[in-house]
Predict the structure.
Amino acid sequence: MAIQGPFKIECSELFPCGVGVVGAVTALADFDVSTKENRVQARDKESGLPLWSVEVMDFDPEARERTFKVKVAAAVQPVPPEAIAGAPVRPVVLEGLTVTPYIKEGTRPRIAYSLRATGLAAPRRSEAGKAA
């Protein structure tokens, strides 16, 4: 098979109804080298950049899963777009988005997806109707 590793995809293709940030951007711990006393931030295997984590919500009312954790590889902590008055979430565009399918173990194993991005951006005005 010619395709190996993560699949590159545009945010608007994966989330046609849009997506929004629902949690804080936090440093992702490297559990292999961290200790109780010394937490070490994980790094992206390809770029070497620090990894951050943010929870996002799919705006599709018919989505089977509504929230996802997205890992963001960035030199500095990404900042979500400005909040919109009266909205509980911040619409966002996940830049440099990739999807990696994997088997999620459990009583009924299933295909799940790991999401990675290189940045967070505010939707452009033309995307405001789609909130992507």
